[in-house]
Design brief:
Length: 190
């Protein structure tokens, strides 16, 4: 007889699966909307009297970098695999979750806020760059132009991604360490 996973493990696996969703959604956005968002941002920069190339010269991309898709899909696949391993009581899933979730936590703290607070991050970056061309850009208008091309669910998805990669990652680590989870992963396999 197979013992069902305790609630702590089910909740941890659910959080892992939920965390995979925004990574999948981000891939869809980049694939279908990224080039249009980049074109809209460049058009706004041109409207402001600057060359469109200024964004590319400074590495500013509004999802037009298709090379990001495999990484996001890979993260979603790994999270899904770990969730399934954890639900089955596989110790490797638990150990790898303890390794990956802190990495996602750091990424969530460092990278994901720039996806939620894009205008503020770019304004700060442009001001501190000392570049007179960047200082001339109306960042809010540029970001609004790019966001206007994106689907309406982008901001809620990015907020969810921020919450799940930070607080969700911490919860996964804690939930997989509680006594009921510990006992579940130590049980004898039949």
């Amino acid at each position: 007889m197979i013992n069902p996973a305790p609630r702590s493990v089910v909740f941890a696996a659910t959080l892992q699966l939920l965390t995979a969703v925004p990574f999948l959604g981000g891939s869809v956005i980049v694939f279908f909307y990224g080039a249009g968002a980049q074109a809209a941002a460049e058009a706004e920069v041109v409207r402001q009297g600057l060359p469109a190339a200024v964004l590319a010269e400074h590495g500013i991309s509004f999802g037009s970098n298709l090379a990001e898709i495999p990484l996001a899909l890979g993260i979603a696949l790994v999270l899904t695999t770990l969730a399934l391993l954890n639900l089955k009581g596989n110790r490797i899933g638990r150990i790898l979750s303890w390794i990956l979730q802190p990495i996602l936590f750091v990424a969530g703290c460092v990278i994901v806020p720039s996806q939620v607070f894009t205008a503020q991050v770019l304004e700060s970056s442009f001001k501190s760059s000392g570049d007179p061309v960047l200082a001339r850009i109306d960042v809010r208008a540029m970001v609004d132009a790019a966001v206007h091309v994106m689907p309406g669910w982008l901001l809620p998805a990015n907020i969810g991604k921020l919450a799940l990669t930070t607080l969700g990652s911490l919860l996964v680590v804690i939930l997989l360490a509680v006594p009921s989870a510990k006992a579940y992963f130590r049980r004898e396999k039949s």
